[in-house]
Structure to design on (338 residues):
């Protein structure tokens, strides 16, 4: 099957799960601080738990090679913090604004446009000099169990290859810690019309595993897909040449289609336009910050948090910490400082 068709189908499945679970990492992180609501956070943690076991099992069986994001400390620190601030302003994370386009949110469309344009500019476009300033990746030659993809012998850093121990050791410890949190952290009560935090978390994790088996090089992502869509659509106008859309670009199209179909079926689709014109400016600025942050950090909330943490990647751990700090800073600045 054509990889682009696979990406489209995985994206449709991803979009359905996102819409029916009302899954947004901005809300998950923000709610823990603002309202002490852990419902979406527990959903995200359960998805990460499923993927942690699923990714390493697939690698153990030889179906994939684990391919964690490269560690560039300055990039993940600055990029993560900017991304965290941006998703509060945009009213959604990278996946959140993408699937909400399918629900009819005009603000989500605007945020996604500015997000994609900025990310494309940073990743190989006119702002690519930013990545050169951030420095070069820190790698290792350790490859315990042969689980990891290597380029000229270099492997991107994870907790396992940093310590040069069997990846299953840190995987099991991490999974047990997540399980303890999920069991003993009392869940905030919430009425849901779609997937609850358990079914939504399991479904999201399984989609991530399916994506890895499909794409082989990495599981789910958002930033690279928007970059592919913008670059391909605007740069290749020669109709005699094959259209170079890739798996991740078609995944974005699939997310929007899947979310639209799910919202339509649940009678939740309608065009939503904000009453205050200032909202358009705010979400545009949020999209720019997210695009700049994800473009420089090498991934967004999906690439680093949902897909990166299950690798126990050092880069994704750093990004997650600073994305949370950036999110909470902007929450404080906008809603709590007065």
């Amino acid at each position: 099957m054509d990889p682009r068709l696979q990406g489209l189908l995985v994206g449709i499945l991803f979009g359905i799960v996102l819409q029916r679970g009302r899954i947004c990492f901005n809300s998950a992180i923000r709610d823990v601080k603002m309202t002490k609501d852990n419902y979406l956070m527990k959903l995200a943690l359960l998805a990460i738990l499923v993927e942690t076991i699923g990714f390493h099992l697939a690698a153990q069986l030889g179906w994939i090679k684990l391919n964690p994001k490269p560690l560039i400390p300055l990039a993940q620190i600055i990029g993560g913090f900017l991304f965290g601030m941006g998703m509060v302003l945009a009213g959604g994370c990278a996946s959140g604004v993408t699937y909400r386009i399918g629900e009819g949110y005009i603000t989500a469309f605007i945020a996604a446009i500015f997000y994609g344009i900025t990310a494309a500019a940073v990743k190989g476009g006119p702002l690519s000099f930013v990545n050169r300033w951030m420095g070069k990746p820190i790698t290792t030659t350790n490859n315990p169990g042969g689980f990891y993809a290597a380029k000229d012998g270099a492997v991107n850093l994870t907790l396992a290859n940093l310590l040069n121990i069997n990846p299953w050791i840190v995987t099991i410890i991490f999974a047990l810690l997540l399980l303890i949190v999920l069991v003993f952290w009392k869940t905030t009560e919430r009425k849901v019309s779609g997937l609850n935090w358990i079914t939504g978390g399991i479904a999201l994790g399984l989609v991530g595993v399916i994506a890895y088996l499909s794409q082989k090089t990495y599981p789910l992502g958002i930033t690279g897909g928007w970059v592919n869509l913008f670059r391909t659509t605007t740069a290749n106008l020669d109709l005699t040449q094959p259209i170079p859309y890739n798996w991740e670009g078609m995944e974005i199209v699939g997310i929007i289609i899947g979310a639209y179909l799910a919202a339509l079926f649940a009678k939740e689709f309608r065009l939503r336009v904000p009453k205050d014109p200032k909202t358009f400016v705010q979400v545009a600025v949020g999209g720019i910050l997210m695009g700049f942050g994800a473009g420089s950090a090498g991934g967004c909330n999906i690439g680093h948090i949902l897909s990166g943490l299950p690798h126990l990647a050092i880069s994704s751990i750093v990004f997650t910490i600073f994305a949370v700090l950036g999110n909470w800073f902007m929450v404080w600045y906008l809603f709590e400082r007065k």
Remarks:
- The longest strand covers residues 139-140.
- The mean pLDDT is 94.
- The chain has one domain: 3-336.
